[in-house]
């Protein structure tokens, strides 16, 4: 689990997904899964995951959510099964809701519909993902 606690005058950088760097100056929230397993994710990323996850769970759809567990490629990925029957909490560190990017949301929605489930990606990866998809008629 990637963890970070707020301390004064400290800047930490780590990765939550390929090419997704998080500065400690950014707020880090928590995804709390099931009976209390906690995963630290940057607030803005967590907000986008929350939008897509909320929409899918309201439709009673279950799926995997996966991300890189740290910036060390040897540590692998984390995958959790998301289902309406499993408790899920989103705790945000920052007081101001992050701005939501509709392109990022769309990329996560399309990604979540695949066999691999939702694989967390950053905004640049999301824009590239959308550009590579043929338009729907």
TrEMBL record:
Domain DUF7882: 29-123
InterPro entries linked to this entry: DUF7882
Domain of life: Bacteria
Protein name (database record): DUF7882 domain-containing protein
Species classification: Bacteria, Bacillati, Actinomycetota, Actinomycetes, Micrococcales
